[in-house]
Amino acid sequence: MSSPEALDSFQKECLEALREVFAKNQNSTNRHFNRWRSQAKLAEQLAQGDFDEARTVAELALESGVPERTLRTAFQRYYGLAPNEYLRVIRLHSAQQLLLSSCPDQTTVTQVAFELGFWDLGRFAQAYRKLFGELPSATLRRPVGKS
Fold first, then answer.
1. What sections of 26-56 are H helices per DSSP?
2. Cα separation of 99 and 122, whole Å?
3. CA 22, CA 140: separation in Å to the nearest integer?
4. CATH topology of domain 4-141
5. Residues 100, 106, 108, 110: is their CA dihedral positive or negative?
6. Tell me, what's the pLDDT at 53?
7. How many CB atoms lie within 10 A of CB 102?
8. Are 22 and 80 in contact (CB under 8 A)?
9. What is the pTM of this model?
10. Domain segments of the chain: what residues?
């Protein structure tokens, strides 16, 4: 893809297609499905409340009032991912949005990473690049409003 706009549009279309596939494959007739969905959503809300704290699955389970194993099952069955993986992807998307809307003269990748609970900058950059196809510094250097 030659332009950043085309690449971003393609990524958004792929994400939407994946969401549709996951939604179609969810077994909502399973008697546990609604419980799993509510448990996973509650833990997600708790985690998003303070990303810089980067709670463990055990802490989220305790705060949610469900056993850790149940919470892991809920995430796996509802999102198709382990809780840590799912929450990391959500935090990476938040990082991308912050980087896209920030001025490189006033913000650093380090500030954004730390704000979202990524303490190992090398792993943050590696995960970011794997998900978005570019380093976080490249995203930050893009002109504001250019996705």
1. 33-49
2. 17
3. 31
4. Arc Repressor Mutant, subunit A (1.10.10)
5. negative
6. 63
7. 18
8. yes
9. 0.67
10. 4-141
